[in-house]
Structure formats: C-alpha cells, structure tokens
Amino acid sequence: MSSPPPPPPSKPKRRRLLSLPAVYPCEDIAPAPLLASLLSLAADVASRRAADVDAFPVLRCGVRKAVRLAGILLAFLEEVQDAAAAAALPSSAVLGLTELHVAMQKLRFLLADCARRGARLWVLVNAGMVASELRLVLGSVAAAMDALPRSVAEASVEAGELARVVSEQAWRAAVRPDGADERAARSVRSILDQFKDGVAPDADDVRRVLRRVRVGSWSDCSEEIAFLESEICARLDAGDENSNDVLVMNSLMTFLVYCRVVLFDHIDARKSQPAAAAAPAAARCPEWIRPEALQCPITLDLMTDPVTVSTGQTYDRASITRWMKAGCRTCPVTGERLSTADLVPNTVLRGIIERMLLINGVTLPEPSAAGGGGHRHGAVANTAVPFGPAAAGAARLAVAHIVAQLSRGSTEERRKATSEARKLSKHSVFYRACLVDANAVPWLLCLLSSTDAAVQDNAVASLLNLSKHPAGRTAIVEVGGVGLVVDVINVGAKAEAQHNAAAVLFYLSSNSPDSAEEIGRIPEAIPTLVQLIRDGAYRGRKNAMVSLYGLLQSAANHGRAIAAGAVSALAALLLSADRDDLAGDSVALLARIAEQPSGAAAVLSQPGLVARLAEALAASSASSSRSARDHSVSLLASLCRHGGAKVVAVLGRMPGLMASLYSLVADGGSPQTSKKARALLNEIHRHYEVAPPPPASSASSDAGGDRVVRVL
User: Fold this and answer.
1) Cβ atoms within 10 Å, residue 154
2) 193 contacts 391 by C-beta, under 8 angstroms
3) What value does the mean pLDDT of the chain take?
4) Hey, what CATH class is 306-357 in?
5) Could you tell me which of 168, 210, 171 has the C-alpha nearest to residue 188?
6) DSSP single-letter state for residue 345
7) Engineered SS bond to 46: which of 20, 71, 102, 709, CB 3.0-4.6 Å?
8) How many CB atoms lie within 10 A of CB 210?
9) CB atoms within 10 A of CB 226
10) On the CB side of 219, how many CA atoms lie within 13 Å of its CA?
11) Contact status, residue 658 vs residue 684, Cβ threshold 8 Å
C-alpha cells in the first residue's frame, strides 16, 4: 500500500512590521560559505548608503550610522576573504561570524521597515522602540566582532584597523529619535487628543507631521491607510484584537482618512515605474475575459482575493467565507452542496485582475493566508463601533467635511467628496452610520441629477452602500428619494450608475412588504426594472431581477409587474439566456409571480414557456442545482393549482418531466422540494386515474385540449 502524498506546503506568514525573525546558520556550516553569505548580506545593507538613506524619513541620524557601519564591516569582511584565500579560516571563527550574520539579518529587516512606503506614520509613533531595536542590533555587531578569533580579526593590518573601528563605533553608537521625530510624534498625540474632544486640529500642525513622514498626496495617504488596515487585520487574525497596537493603529488610520479628505483637494493616481511597466502586461490580458467574470457572484464587486470552491466556482474570499459562516453549505451559483470547505486561491484570475489594475496605478492587497484570514478586512470594516474615541472623532470630522463639500462645493469638490463617501461607506458600517447621521443622504440624492457623470456615479454608489444600513434606507425613503433613484435607472449617464440604482431598490424593498408596496406605487419603478431586465447588460439584469423579486414580496405589486410586461421579459430571457444564473433568476421570479392566479395565467399565456420549464427542471435535476429545482417545482405547482385539469394533463404528457419529479421525490435535496414534487406527481396521477382516456379518433380533434397545448 503506497503512502499518502505529502500535504502541500503551507504559505509562509507575512512578517509583521518591526519584527526581526533572523535565522541562525546551521551548526556544522564551514567558515568559508558562512563568510561568503555574510559578505552578500553586508553588501546589501551597505548599498543603501548611496541611494536609500534619503528615503528614511524617521531616525535619519541612526540609519546613517547603521549604514555607514555596514560599509566599514563590508570592507573588513573583504579583507578577511582576501586573507582566507591564502590560509583557510579556523573553525573557531564560526561563532563570531554566525552572530554577525544574525545581527546583519536583523539590521536589514529594520532598515527595510523604516524605509517601507505606507508604514511611515507607524514608524514615527514607534520611533523610540525602533531606536532601541537599532541600538540592540549594533550592540550585537560589536559583541560579535569581539568574539572573532584574533587570527581572523587581525588577518591583515587593514583588517585589524577596520575591526577596531567597527567594534568601537558599534559600542559607542548613540541611537535615539531625532528631535524632529520627537516633535512630530508629540504633534500626532496632540492631534489625536483633539479628535477625542471633537475638535478639528490646526491644518498647519497636521501638514508638518505629514511633511516629516513625507506624505504629500492623496495617494500617499491611501497607501498609509492600506498598510495600517493590513497590520490591524494581521493582529486580528492572530487573536490580538484587544492589544493597544490595534487601538493606536485604528486611530492613526482615521487620522490619515481625515488628512486625505480635508487636506488634499484632488485624487491623484499613483504614477510609478511598476505601473508603467505593467502596461504591456495588461495589454496581454486575454480579450475573451468578460468583465463580469472578474466580479464576485455574491457581491458583484471586483474580486481582490479570488478563491475557488469544490464546485469549481470562484468567489471573493471574504464573501464566500461569510456565506459559509452563515451556515450555508451550498455553492451560491450552482446550488450544489460543497463537498469541502477548502478555498483554493485562484492565482490565474488574480494575476489577470492585477494586470488590469496596475495600468491605472492600483495595487491589490495581499491575499489572505489559506485556511485563515477569517477577520481580514471584514473585522476592521464591518464594525459599528470604532476602537477608540480618537478614531470616532476623526471619522466624524472627516464626514462633516464631506457633507459640507456635497452641499456647497464646486463640481470638482463634489466629485472628490462623492468619491470619498463612496470609498468610506463601501465596507465600513461605522462610516455608513456617520454619513447618515451627518445628513449626507439628501445631498447625495440631489446629486443624482448632476450633469457630471462621475459625480452622479459616485453618488449612486454611495447611496447603494448607505442603503445597506437600516438608518440609510429609512433616510432615503423619508426624503422621497425613491423616485430619484428610479430616474437614474432610466437615464443614468453610465451603465454602472443604472445598475447600482437598481440594486438600491432591492435594499429599500427589503425593509418590509409595506416598503415594497410603497416603492411599487411609484409609476415608473417596476416598468423601469422590467425594461432593464429586457435590454440591460448582465449586471444590470441581475440587479433588476433581484430588486423586482424584493418588490414582489408585496402582493399588490404582482399586478403591476404583469402589467409592465415582466412575464414576457422573463420568458424571453429564460428561452434565450446563455447563462445558467440568469435562467435560474428568471425561474425564481416567474415562480413568485405565479403564486397569484393572474400571474399563473400570464405565465401560461407565453408560448413554449411551460415546455422550457420542464426541460429546465430535468436539467437542474441532472446537475443537482438546489435553487433551480426549488423554483422550477414551485412554479409548476402554482401553474397546476391555478390552471386546473388542462394544465395537469399537459404536464403529464411532457416527456422527461415525470422521471425528473420521481428523482426529486427520491433524492431531491430539500424537504420542501420533495414535498412539492410528490404533490405534483399525485395531482398528475389523480387526473389520469379519474379522466377516461379519449377515443383515438377524437384525440387530435379535442378543441379544448388543442387550445391548451397551443397556448402552453
């Protein structure tokens, strides 16, 4: 019996900032390869001397000392290597060289963290700790130099002099935060205290802090925010949600949000060499890729961490994780039961998305570690209460500025304000609540009529995000905004604005059947959705069907949907759809409409529709799609209930239908589906047991039967 294959190697965890996980060389390593590796390491650190020192906005003096010391150490090691060419290094040199190797690893990590773009504000507020770590590393270098045998330390006259210089300078190095660093860090703490009191800080004080860490644009702020969010997520994943670091990071993140919103007048795209270099790669993306294939089927947002489930469907990791944590064990698209909860990263699709975004200077966040990452962005964003009063104060002040720009800003200012509202409300429950409390909804509704396409698009997307909040839905309805949303579906400047407006109606209708009925009373609401189902693109159709389904929870809207031509539009889509999800949504809507007698009559009046439904049921039975089975059986049951014996007779004569129903009774999945399939079978059998078979000569001349067959 062969042994099972080894498990795939797990993805290494991302190193936490300011952690220095050095690796000791193996114990039995020879001095020569250890010296060669140490030379490479020292050269890497010393190479920062010429070009990179100016990139360190914090601890500049300490960094210069460390880099200069690395350069002297490199010269010493080169002298030792030259001497070793004539005489082999003694084995006693391994201990000192090993300690030097570990110290230089830590120094390289520390310098990389100090220079890291996006981490500059965090390094500033931790400048004291960073300086302490740097002192410890330099002390380790000095101790390692003293541990080297004299035959190595004085391998030549020049080597001896360089060794003494390295040891003396490493021991004497007084590394502490620069005076400007300490002043900037005090300013940050003072600004956070003002946020706690709800007081807007002096703009010049804020700009001085940003200049110190070289944050000079909207994109620089966004880069710092993205870093802090990723660090918070890493700590939440590690179970450190109650640590002081998380509190401070969230306060700094909202401080930067305030800076981005208030201090920078325009949104700049990052123009960097990687983005320019990515342009040819983006041009090589397969032309057959549909844009909707890059969207998560659950949220319809662009996937940032695509993963594949056991059915072969791909979702964004955060969305499918929430789906499974809610107790759902089926594939949202196919309805198939998931044989395993494993999520396999779709690296090919992620690469395509990255290449398409890089041309615009946008980078994707690092993907979650497989099997973990349950918190990730959801834990930071989907919280109604911020982690501290400073964060709450900064967020409210930023939102107040956004609302002021929405109400009286120029077109350019409104474009930026709506973009900020859209970005902040996309994932954060707290920012949604802040925007609603700050009375942003009426101004966003006013901007739906803006002649600027970007303003209108951002305003609709912001309202879509706010409609996910109960208070946001109430505010939209109370100020009479439903009609304005419907108008955007009709005449939106961009297709995306029309699609988002259709999705807003779904959330508004989800409050209660009364809300759905109130929306249905607007003359253009349901006809507009039906028109989008008939003529819209894929995403527009999806959103329109979901919204119409929500409106149909009110019985009063069934007649309005029928009058607007919903049945014919859905029938045409079902008969011609080349996507299974659109066909499934069409059946679901028809099943909801057919619950009423008038709806069943409208469905029965569509030529060829019932035959197509029977085919769809057989196909869904073969593919084990639970949602398709449920809706197909429900629809046929409603048609039999309201259509009478003639409909039952026609269904009984359809090839393949009976076999599908028997299969559903035997192993049809949900108890409700099996129960409906059994009732439908009983009704068909009862009809053929009671009704005598027609004479062969008159079977084809039964006018009533012919009429039913032609209609169906």
Assistant:
1) 17
2) no
3) 79
4) alpha beta
5) 210
6) E
7) 71
8) 21
9) 16
10) 11
11) yes
